[in-house]
Specification:
The protein starts with a strand and ends with a helix. It is of the alpha/beta class. Bound molecules: nicotinamide-adenine-dinucleotide.
Length: 282
């Protein structure tokens, strides 16, 4: 039976540490501000934005909310980002993705100052991660490193297999595991013999976007399994990319869905915002 990696408890631990840090900064007269921009009213995005604002409130970060109509032009959005880039009271800028189709996502990501890029999506942030320089790291993979470290999982020298090569999860995940001295393999939809490659893993990170695809036949006895996927099944219950009931008896540690990777993403966003204020703020 695997030990559960409790993302809810670990994310609370991180948020409480940040809360203390923010209170200490306040005593020195420094207030941290984050701008949260949403264009249009996609219901899923509204839930994410709401949760981010709630986390800011819990930690003591002042959040400024910009809820822009669906028909906002790219120019208007760029003008707002430019204004926030110049604003000393704002340390982090977050544009909730996806943006409506008439707005180019890459242009928006590049417009955010790398000093305020708390999502870690700017090419400069990604480049810094690649060559081992300080910079903001995409929140979900950064959260997974915290889950592993705070659950006592050693990464150095371990066989790490990442399934998925997206820019926000798979690729930065692989780079972070490499930074921790893991021996890293990235797999994807064109990988041959996926099962055999996965079976080598001491640490298996699954970010595919396919409900319950990974069962026990992909997992080595005693492996640590991290499930990034989030899906709703036919009964409206949440599940991941891993078939939990099949894998749990084989793994040594495993993240549940919900309550595993999910809560870590917002905790790391808050961490990045505090870092933005302490590294680059006035
Ligand atoms: P994505 O669709 O951008 O990437 C999926 C990756 O999986 C691709 O690189 C693709 O090559 C690979 N893949 C697809 N089919 C495959 C197959 N049959 N075999 C091997 N590889 C295959 O997805 P993403 O944005 O990286 O997200 C992955 C999952 O994680 C989704 O379920 C998403 O909802 C979830 N997610 C969760 C969080 C969180 O906070 N918990 C954050 C981001 C994403």
């Amino acid at each position: 039976m695997a030990e559960l990696i409790d993302g809810k408890a670990i994310s609370k631990q991180i948020k409480d540490e940040l809360k203390e840090q923010v209170a200490a900064l306040k005593q020195q007269g420094k207030e941290i501000g984050m701008a949260v921009i949403q264009v249009g009213n996609d219901p899923a995005s509204s839930v994410y934005v709401g949760n981010k604002k709630k986390a800011c409130e819990y930690i003591g970060i002042r959040s400024e909310s910009y809820e822009l109509p669906e028909e906002t032009t790219q120019e208007e959005l760029l003008t707002l980002i430019d204004k926030l880039n110049q604003d000393d009271k704002i340390h982090g800028i977050l544009v909730q993705l996806p943006v409506p189709k008439h707005i180019d996502e890459d242009t928006i990501i590049k417009a955010i100052s790398p000093k305020k890029d708390v999502d870690g999506f700017h090419p400069q942030s990604v480049g810094a991660l690649t060559i081992g320089q300080p910079g903001f790291v995409s929140c979900t993979p950064a959260g997974i490193i915290q889950l592993l470290k705070r659950s006592g999982v050693e990464i150095e020298g371990k066989e790490c297999v990442v399934i998925g090569r997206s820019n926000i999860v798979g690729k930065p995940m692989a780079l972070l595991l490499l930074r921790e001295n893991g021996t890293v393999t990235i797999t994807h939809s064109r990988t041959k013999n996926l099962k055999e490659v996965c079976k080598r893993a001491d640490i298996l990170v699954v970010a595919i976007g396919r409900p319950k695809m990974i069962d026990a036949s992909y997992v080595k006895e005693g492996a640590v399994v991290i499930d990034v996927g989030i899906h709703r099944n036919e009964n409206n219950k949440l599940c991941g990319d891993v078939d939990f009931d099949s894998v749990e008896p084989v793994a040594s540690k495993i993240t549940p869905v919900p309550g595993g990777v999910g809560p870590m993403t917002i905790a790391m966003l808050m961490h990045n915002c505090v870092e933005a204020a302490t590294m680059f703020g006035e």
